[in-house]
Specification:
single chain; about 325 residues; alpha/beta; Rossmann fold; 13 strands; globular; binds nicotinamide-adenine-dinucleotide; binds uridine-5'-diphosphate
Length: about 325
Amino acid sequence: MTSLKRILVTGGAGFLGSHLCERLVGQGHDVICLDNFFTSQKSNVAHLLQQPNFELIRHDITLPIWLEVDEIYNLACPAAPGHYQYNPIKTMKTSVMGAINVLGMAKRCRAKVLQASTSEVYGDPEVHPQPETYRGAVNPIGPRACYDEGKRAAETLFMDYHRRNGVNIRIVRIFNTYGPRMHPFDGRVISNFIRQALQGEELTIYGDGSQTRSFCYRDDMVEGIIRAMNAPDDFTGPVNLGNPEEFTIRELAELVIELTGSRSKMAFRPPLPDDPARRQPDITLARQRLGWSPTVPLREGLRRTIEWFRSIDISHYRPPTPHY
Ligand code: NAD
Ligand code: UDP
């Protein structure tokens, strides 16, 4: 039986955060969800508001906050390229100052703290698939750098607080994850393709569609994140979490068209700058140390995601606020 804890989830109203909160509330923990709603909306956690063990705080993680907690999952950060490039300086601040604030809290409370890092720390990788030992090829001055370098700096801060101050940390490197509650206008490939296919629009492919990604369904990812938090204390990570099944973007477009039964065609657009040509996680470490591997194949995960996209009223969603 797990002992009940007070757990802070920053970015808890987001796509992954809201599912994580749901799981932790279901396990009986006392959950504090902190979010500034930059890329999410309250409706993602509205169903949890009636639960006595759930609390919602509107707060920006770049500013300090004083809470007493046992565990922190640090997910606060815009994650989709369109979102994190919207205000790149704020993205960097969120990663770096957010990490400093949660690490300071963890140090004071002797709490365990997990960082949601990313496969973007590998940049446009020359090593394939990517193991945790690969140090990456990030362009430090490109349009993706605000996110990639912000997340790399956050990993540095986590390791230094651990070595210098004995803070109990976990770092997970999350690879492309999708599922219900993705923001329909986040510009990520799966949300774009499903929205376009359902609305009978052309599916926009950047470049020739030969670039690859490996897509993980959100339930598998949330399970991996929780396992990493509960791993033995000598296992700090970084550990890759993702589904190693690799697809070209063109194959993904064909699959979405097939599964939605859409008549949409593909439209090829100029390639994006610094777009990684291929990406696939080596999850040997996660298998060995967390006993974790994904269970939901892309076809099944897409089916569930398409069903959710069909059920929502898209007019209730908006792009990021201009006041951010
Ligand atoms: P998301 O955009 O849905 O969630 C991020 C949440 O953080 C949102 O609710 C947003 O409002 C909040 N937020 C942003 N800036 C904030 C700030 N300054 N203060 C407080 N809250 C803030 O994205 P997601 O896909 O759920 O990603 C969650 C985490 O996982 C992020 O840290 C992201 O970098 C990481 N990650 C996700 C993926 C993926 O494929 N989904 C891949 C790699 C890493
Ligand atoms: N992509 C695309 N069409 C879209 C959105 C994205 O072809 O409408 C491509 C994009 O160029 C990239 C891949 O899909 O090669 C994944 O993009 P996404 O923004 O989902 O995530 P990331 O690049 O961060 O992995």
